[in-house]
Structures are given as C-alpha cells and as structure tokens.
What we know:
This protein is α/β, with parallel strands linked by helices. The protein has 15 helices and 13 strands.
Amino acid sequence: MFFDKMIKTLSHNLINIPGWYTKRKLVVIESDxxxxxxxxxxxxYNQFLKEGIRVDNDPYCRYDSLANKEDLEALFDVLTSVKxxxxxxxxxxxxxxxxxPDFRKIREADFCEYFYxxxxxxxxxxxxxxxxxxxWKEGIKEGIFHPQFHGREHLNVKKWLSVLREGKxxxxxxxxxxxxxGLTSKVNQSIQGxxxxxFDSAEKDDIKRYDKIIKEGLDLFENLFGxxxxxxxxxxxxxxxxxxSSLNLNGVKYIQGxxxxxxxxxSGTKFYFKKNNYQGKRTKLGQVYLxxxxxxxxxxxxxxxxxxxxxxxxxxxxxxWGKAAVISSHRLNFIGNIDSQNxxxxxxxxxxxxxxxxxxxxxxxxxxSDELGRNIVGN
Length: 379
C-alpha cells in the first residue's frame, strides 16, 4: 500500500517537471462533453433497465445527459461563490460538441447517409432544454462558462452507421430507437465497438473525412458562439497527429489532453500511447499542448477516495513545479436529469474544492484553456 502510494505520488510529480514554467498560481477547469446527447432522458434510462440493458454499469450512461436549467443554474451558483486575486469568478472551460445525430433523417435514409443537427436544435426539440442555450450565453457573458471545441459530434459516424446498417447489434439498434448512441461494452458485451471516439482512425480516407468534420465543426462553433475556438480536446483522448494540420488550418492553436495521447494506427483496432505531451510542449506545427494534471471526477470515484483532497494535492504538486493546475471534470459530474443526487452531492464537493483553492492559495487566478495557451505563448 505504502509503495503504491509512493509510486503514484512520484508519477504525479514527474509529469509536472518538464515544460513551461510560471510563478503564477493559475487554475483551469476543463469540462468535456457539453452539448452531446448521452442518455436522452430518465424515461429512456428506465426503459433500458426494463429491457435488461444495464446502463447503470457505465457512469456516463447512468448520470450523463444534456444539462437542463436546474443543472446550469446550480453550477453557475457554485462558480460565482468564489473569486480569485483579480476579482474574477471561477470559470468553466466547457469543451463542447456543436452537433448531434438527426435520428429521423438517418432512419429515413436507411442508415446509408449521415445527418446532424446543431445542438441548439437538439435543445429546442426537448421541452426540458428549450431555453437552456440562453443560459449558456448568460454564462459566457458573465465569464464563468467558456465553450471550446470538443468536436462536431461525440461520435464515430462511419463506425456507428456501419453497425446500424448491418443490423446484427440489437443493443446498438435499440439505443438508436431510444435516441442515443453512447452505449459501451460496460453496458452490454454485445457492443464490440466504442462509437464515442470521433477521430479514432489513421486511415487515409478517414483522415480526409475528419478534415471535413473539423472544418464544419469549427465553423458551426463560430456561428453558435460568435468567436473561433482556439483550443481543442479530442473525444476519448484519441487522435492521429495527421489531423493536427486541419486543426491548425482552422484556427486551433492549443490542444488539451492528458500527458498521454492514444494514437490510432489503423481504422480503430490498434493504438499507440504517446506519453510526453507535457504542458507547453509544441506539435510540429507549433500548436501548444495543455496537459491536464489534476482531476475532479466524483461520479467515477465517489466512495473510493477523497476526490477533493486528492485534487488539492495534485494542484499543490502542479504549483510546486511552476505549472498551471489544469483540472479535468467531465459534464456527468454536474448533471441531475437522471439522478438529482449525483448533481447535488457533487456540487457540494465542488464548492468545497473551490473554497479550498482560494483559501490555500489566495493569489490564485482562474483562467480558461485558451487563455492559458496565450500565456504560454506570450512567455
């Protein structure tokens, strides 16, 4: 036990040694999956369980859904409960997809052609979410909710359509009928492919397809939010360096992620792990990696360890080595549509974390991911 803890602490320190250095106490909170459909509704969740499809075995299927009004208002209340040395509230870098599948049109095309709809249409078509995008815009205006690009959609379109056309995977087909695609083998062993990795191929034809998806996605992002996203985080932390030129061409200067990158070697069956994307390292094109070095993921780890103390410990390590503390905290931690206790309990912990940060480091500064990138480049 002691040896394991020592190895873990050593690894937490090692990833923070190389790269960009600053004396400032910078905190970035990166939250993935905003805008994406995961579990469409509590009714769909209960229907899956009724049919013996164990969506409760995967935290994303169990908790994650489009944020509703109550989710956002509760989150914003916590973000505005603290201020940094400059008088700024805590800010969420909301890594968002900008589209979801248009299930009706895809069905009408017999799964032979893909269609998508902007997230604003997805929200407008749901009575529980029709005014939610206005709250997004309010959060942007207040400087507490700052969207960045997570992809056009959180989906490997080619793989998903192929399985649906084939028609043999009955669980994936049933998920489509209930308005989702985000089930995994944790839910049912019959699901062999993970559809969530939008860029998990290195095949030449797929890279061309990704170039189109990236351009369309970033253009739609600008249309929705009124500014170009300068940073990007790949779904499932998986992407080939071959797409970085397309990202660069379309304005992405900073790449969020872990210290390790899952690189596809073929059409999505073989992968290589690159483990040195440290904070401030640059791609061959000059784009800057913004490494995540802290984690607040209570929906995954509640009951296994103290997520607040662990996160504060990792922030302390980051600051010790002159690094920005970049906290990963996925959307599912703040959603109560399926289970309100998930949101409410996690927000209590999140408030405790933010209070702990400003108390321990009164000179802290809350900034967004793209702002961190500009600080690194500026130095």
